[in-house]
Design a protein that fits this description.
Elements lengths: L3 E7 L3 E8 L5 E9 L9 H9 L9 E4 L20 H6 L2 E2 L6 E3 L3 E3 L7 E3 L2 H12 L4 E5 L4 E7 L2 E8 L1 H11 L14 H11 L5 H13 L8 H17 L9 E6 L1 H13 L3 E6 H16 L5
Parallel strand pairs: 1-4, 4-6, 9-12, 12-13
Antiparallel strand pairs: 1-2, 2-3, 5-6, 7-8, 9-10, 10-11
């Protein structure tokens, strides 16, 4: 039995790890920003993980990994079982890592059924369980903003539905590789007025492809200034995401759990409040730690 646990969040662009007390969840040590898998060749994954975690493993402290580490292009494939699922279903499909002793990869989640509902999650599933545990909830609507934002529903402890929006990725692509990049400055300060104008634009008819061009035409019409373009685009995309993905079953009296890094919380809180919804912010870091720990304890009762 170990009284410690190592949690790893290993994705395409970052490697983060924490050594914690298994029972209390107290953080004992942290690796805040290591190399993501994109920066390594596949044959380097095992050596890199061993090197990073070795200072914490004079004894084989159990390691639980989440994220793209389990994707086909990751270190070792882990399944993506279909919904509906409970926490115990996730724990039962954890995959042992063949190149690291007493280490495991947590599976992702998939959604099947009608073709238009086909979707996948890898990494956010542990944040969903963590957010529920941190708030003492068994049922909730959750929003997980990011490169690929997720909206998820959990009912009576069962993960029942989710949908993905490419909000963050489209934002980056439009600023880096479209005509908007000639005007926009990603480093410009957040402009609330421009952001709200973007939210308002998303409410009108015409569709996202039309609305995207208004980020240029409204600058030319001097309705927004060039330095405000990024804030306007952010409002436009987040507004479109909310319009399309807030579940119809979500009442304005319900509290949406907003799971994300601090810098993403503000614009989503503004957008949700303006749409009439209550929300509660949980940091993605806290949700990951709590969720992986919950899965690990179910997988290995000795960690209780």
């Amino acid at each position: 039995m170990s009284d410690q646990l190592i949690i790893v969040d290993w994705g395409t662009t970052a490697f983060r790890a924490w050594l914690i007390e298994a029972e209390s969840g107290t953080i004992l040590a942290e690796i805040p920003d290591g190399l993501g898998m994109r920066a390594l060749a596949r044959e380097e994954f095992a050596a890199y993980a061993n090197k990073q975690l070795a200072p914490w493993r004079s004894t084989p402290v159990p390691v639980y990994m989440a994220g793209m580490v389990g994707a086909p292009q990751g270190w070792q494939w882990a399944p993506q079982p279909p919904l509906p699922l409970g926490l115990s279903d996730i724990a039962q499909q954890i995959v042992p890592v063949t190149e690291l002793d007493n280490a495991f990869i947590i599976p992702g989640v998939s959604q099947k059924g009608a073709p238009q509902d086909a979707d996948v999650i890898r990494g956010e599933e542990v944040q969903i369980w963590g957010a529920l545990e941190l708030t003492g909830r068994q049922s909730a609507t959750l929003c997980l903003p990011g490169t690929h934002s997720k909206w998820a529903q959990v009912e009576a402890g069962t993960f029942t539905h989710f949908a993905t929006a490419m909000t963050g990725e489209v934002y980056e692509v439009m600023l880096e590789h479209s005509i908007l990049g000639l005007m926009a400055n990603k480093k410009a300060p957040f402009n609330l007025d421009a952001f709200i104008k973007g939210l308002e634009q998303a409410e009108h008819a015409g569709g996202l492809l039309h609305h995207l061009f208004t980020a240029r035409s409204r600058v030319l019409a001097k309705e927004i200034a060039e330095p405000e373009t990024a804030s306007y685009l952010s409002g436009l995309l987040i507004g479109s995401e909310l319009t399309g993905l807030i579940p119809s079953s979500c009442s304005q009296q319900d509290e949406i759990l907003l799971v994300c890094a601090e810098q993403l919380a503000k614009p989503y809180e503004i957008a949700l409040s303006r749409a009439g919804y209550l929300c509660r912010h949980i940091t993605s870091r806290d949700a990951t730690l709590c969720g992986v720990r919950a899965v690990a304890r179910m997988h290995n009762p000795a960690l209780q």
